[in-house]
Amino acid sequence: MPVISLAEVDNVLGTSTLPPPQLPTTEASSVAQYRQFIRARLAEPLFVETLAKELLPFVVQRPIMPRALVQGKTRDGRAFYYRSIPCPSSQLTSVRPWWDLTTSVLICRDEYRPTVLYSSDHTTECTSPTSPTFGCGCGPFLLFCARDAKQKAVLDAAVYEEVLLTLKHVIDTRRPLSDLLTMNETVRSGYGDFYYARTEFLLHGDPAVLAIRLDAPPTLKPRPPQYGGGLLSMPGLLYADSARRVIMMLLWSDLLCLPFRSVNVEPHVLIDAARDKPALRSESHEELTVTPGCQNCHSRLEYGLRAFAGWSFGQIGTSYDPKRTVASTRFYGADHTDLRDEGPATPAWLGAEFVSQPEFAACMVHKVGELVFEGEPVPGALSRYLRAEFARTQDLATLVEDTLIARTFGLATLSRGTASN
Amino acid sequence: MLAAVAVVPRGAYARPVAGAGPGRRPTKFLQIFVSGGLDSLFLVDPKSRDEVKPRIAPVYTAQQLVESNGMRLAPNCRPLEPYLSRVSVINGILSGTVGHATGAVQTLQLRRNIRSSSDATIATLVGQALEPESPIHAFCLGRAESLWRPTAGRVVYDEFPSYELLKRFTSVVNDTHDDLGEHVIQQVEGLYRDARTREAATPVRALLQRLKGKVVPPPAVFDSSSIVFSPNLRDPSISDAAIAAFRAKGDRTLMESFQWALFLLKNNIAPSVWMSSGSYFNWDTHQQNNGRQDVNTAHLMLGLRWFLDQLAASPGTGGRTLLDEVGIVISSEIGRFPYLNAQEGKDHFPQVSAILIGPGLRAGQFGQTDAELIGLPVNLRTGRPGGSSDTILTLDDVGRTVLEWVGARAPRESGYDGRVMDFCFA
Predict the structure, then answer these.
(1) Distance between CA atoms of B104 and B19, rounded to whole angstroms?
(2) Which of A204, A284, A406, B47 has a 20 to 30 A CA-CA distance from B185?
């Protein structure tokens, strides 16, 4: 007899709000019935969301924070926008906004500033919530602002949606999970396209790339060639934090289950390194890869960041400049003594490295086990079985399905040859 | 977005009655996580101009400082004056990391030698020590950045802060039925699951029993701005713009967490509570450090004052008040670099301060920092520089000391191999 009911399966998968299963009997008891039910549920967006939060918590952590404009009273028959305080008419300037290039709107001059894309000391992009103090405006075509709060919410949602729908595509089509970290194409809507178009405009200066059909439904489509590495170069990750090392750390932690541990960063070492370097945080620090006390973390962080050298990170927007890219990098595992590989410094190579590490399969199996067993210990024999299977197939749907079946009917059910196929 | 409730005993600890540590111990516990990075200069490690190197700010005149019980604190600590006899401050604690996420896990566990981010938090361990049989050992209040999801053995994740979950529980318990019939329990179990939580039914039922008949506090309305900026407290360096920003931002999250912490402790819902000081963005002051830290620390201290006043007014056991029963630890995951950066902010620093409040403590300010705010070695007996066995204080020492304070058995077996800072105890 099953040890958990179908209703409990729904709780595990986050699909309990869906209508009850259409099964031959209301009280399913066979492995086949459970598999049928689980497979139907795995196709549900609610399940994908549950799984994403378990496997990829970093992609749901932060709002993107494009700044929302406020629409003031119409002036001279045209829409008038400002960010915080309306300005006199004498300070208004006319701009074609990215959301409708066929029209023009009025905006306060100091909130436009199309040429100011960096903070005053040029160390960071206009990324901070306090960035108005750096002199950043909405930028060319108001690319760093949303028309209003509603549009900002849609833009924010599009970033998360791209991650979820691309993961769903991988699950639905039974592509190996490794593709999520190596593929170029993603599933995204018109608003999802906006972020890529903005970066392309900043790179090439051609306003034609901004002519996006914003209401286009999500579909699988390619990205410019620099966007390899699947998830690694999606806006949901690139924009997650202007502190780029935070993002790097999360990759090791969430994809490989390898936490960063402090060994001993000494205050005096840091003071000596940074006392007279006010822009230290935004600079590259490859010297830290060989600095005792720093190297165990920074060997991973700094070499990982090399793969993204062409991008500037930020919560409002990123730009890409191929001139900033570097040729090669390294991949370290647990610490600075654990060099795994060397290769081209691209997101695609980095993604391929992540998924080829033995810790990747083990980490994914561990997380799915945590999800399915709801925190209860996962039997060691089952873990070993699932790790071996997942390392071979990278089939995420099967992993979830088999883990649920094993919890419900026991490992023997899988080893007797009824594992998913 | 995640909050957690730690509920499962994992090798429950019995409380010893003798041994090292304080004469009196807390029977309840609150950890306040100042998420983002506290600048100790604004609170518990203030300096005068001649004590620090040029370019380090803020500095204070003697008249500005709050001096009591051998402590010398920054002006923003003034609201705590009535309670300073219960406060032990430790400065110059080596945390050994400048990463938020690493530091956050360390702060949740109050140690550096993290084995796994899934290990029990200090709030859970303390809850287990204080009340092994409690169905809920520790509650997590307030939003923890998902980066830093609090973890504690078997973890319950939910979509919103735990106080939202509590509101729903208490609503069902108090409004729907007179007694806890099976129907109510099923409803609440459903709520729990709807919230994508993952726990067995037993602790939910036990929690409901404890919540039965408890009055849910109304939403917190606490306008501290009039106090923060009253003429005798306001620092002239706080700009009008900062005051306006403070008022616009409000303090609902912090106050709501304090309010729910009080509710949980006062009503014996859980022996241990973890709460966040609010948004990490507020405290991670890479830009405009001084204005923002000033406002944030003032805000935090006023909230804390409100909380302590409430404890003092709440009956405890044996004729005492809750003030005599609750132990509080306040700290950040990282410190702030002593020098301003190009954006007038302060970057990260691998050293923190901790504030302990509660029974059994020796009031005072321990640990010491030098002219560049680097922690000096201190004597483990006195907590002050000078002695043959001087050593740098570490986060491991704080974790071990807190477990000692609450009477946890065999902290070393849980991986807490720091040293007991006996100087903290009366």
Answers:
(1) 31
(2) A406
Asked whether the ipTM of the predicted complex exceeds the cut of 0.85, the reply is no
Could you tell me which chain B residue has the CA closest to the CA of A122?
B342
Average pLDDT over residues A165-171: 96
Distance of CA A205 to the CA centre of its chain: 26
Distance, in angstroms, between B196 CA and closest chain A CA? 6
Cβ within 8 Å, pair A246-B100:
yes
Confidence of residue B264 (pLDDT cuts 50, 70, 90): confident
Give the dihedral sign, CA B347/B281/A153/A67.
negative
Q: Does A281 sit within 8 Å of B286, measured CB to CB? A: yes
CA distance A392 to chain B (A): 27
- Tokens representing A2? 């099953």
For residue A58, the chain B residue with the least C-alpha distance is B147
| Cα B410 to Cα A381: distance, rounded to the nearest angstrom | 32
Interface touch A130/B287, C-beta < 8 Å: yes
Model pTM score: 0.76
Is B101 at the interface with chain A, CB within 8 A?
Answer: yes
Q: What is the pLDDT of residues A305-344, one digit of tens each?
A: 999 988 876 555 567 889 889 999 999 998 899 999 999 9
pLDDT band at B413 (very low <50, low <70, confident <90, very high): confident
Of A50, A129, A133, nearest to B281 by CB-CB distance is: A129
In eight-state DSSP terms, residue A90 is G
B268 within 8 A of B24, measured Cβ to Cβ: no
pLDDT digits (tens, 9 = 90+) for B164-182: 666 666 666 655 544 555 5
Which chain B residues in 261-280 lie under 8 Å from chain A, judged by CB atoms? none
Residue among B101, B198, B350 whose CB faces A270 most closely: B350
pLDDT band at B216 (very low <50, low <70, confident <90, very high): low
Contact between B296 and B276 (Cβ < 8 Å): no
Q: Which stretches does DSSP call E strand in B183-336? A: 272-276, 326-332, 335-336
Query: Could you give the C-alpha distances from A227 to A27, A219, A231, A233, A234, in angstroms and in order?
Result: 48, 17, 9, 6, 8
